[in-house]
User: What shape does this take?
Amino acid sequence: MIVVMRIDSDEEQRDGVVRRIESLGLRGEIVHGEQRKVIAVLGQVYPELRDELATLDGVDQVLRISRPYKLASREVRERDTVVELPYGVSIGSGRPVVMAGPCAIESEEQLRETAARVRQSGAHILRGGAFKPRTSPYSFHGLGLEALEMLQRAGREFGMPVITELLSERDVDVVAEHSDVLQIGTRNMQNFVLLSEAGKTGKPVMLKRGLSATIEEWLLSAEYILTQGNPDVILCERGVRTFETQTRNTLDLNAVALVKRLSHLPVIVDPSHGTGHWYLVGPMATAGLAVGADGLMIEVHPDPDRALSDGAQSLTPEHFDELMQEASALGNAVGRPLAERPAVAVQGGAR
Ligand code: PEP
Ligand code: MN
Assistant: This one.
């Protein structure tokens, strides 16, 4: 942190600032410029210090130079984090993975049919919502525990790790027991108690970006999970709210490229929620891979017209198969071919 003194500040004011810094167990070093004097604050600074110093006599402004998140930062860990999942699937290895499945698990048949089809097309991880956060209290909210059991069974039957949303502290144990990755949804990105509880389970956690969250806020939320001693955090860019109304959200691909630079954590792109329209999912999926995403999350439904949630953005299995071919070609073109399929052979299932 740097304290910039006003041009007309005097020695007594500068000494006052240094004394205050030193009273906090930090070091303050005055740098004498041509016109201005600045004071470098050395040691473990904390966010509130900026405001504390800004109000002292003679201070013009206080500038932060180190990043507020630590464990999520590449400054602390240079090497990419690789999250290892069952069936030999890893996220962040340099070879992108694809998570696919229905927005909400509606029935055993719907889930098994989707799982069989996405597995056949080359998806690596099965997704499906059991506890659904819905804008309206009158919408379908998921089948809860019953759906978690279906998801776990389908994951085992088709040999894929599974991911599902953890909506509330109430469900931490049961969701951790039935899934390989806990998803923290957009609406809960800053539910700090939930983040800590998810972190404590020791399961990998995929943290979706909040509707209007800045990149710094998103990484600070990741920090809440990491500080629980859980290194397996995956970030997911799923679009942010902007002035545009023709798409559901605006998929922020700047964020993907920037976060890959700022952080060692893997980043997944979700073009389904990012666009809200099935016909935009393919183009934005390949775009996401092109800018460096470590994987994709794609909503697929055997009959999107009848889906109980997010039908408009869900791909049919046929369209998903086309997307996988495009994603595979894009991956090859940029020298990051899609990851091998999960290790265990398909045991059968609905077609
Ligand atoms: C979802 O993945 O179905 C979901 C609810 O996502 P988000 O939290 O990004 O809206
Ligand atoms: Mn959805």
Summary: The mean pLDDT is 96. Residues 103, 273, 299, 309-310 surround manganese (II) ion (ligand 2) (CB under 6 Å).
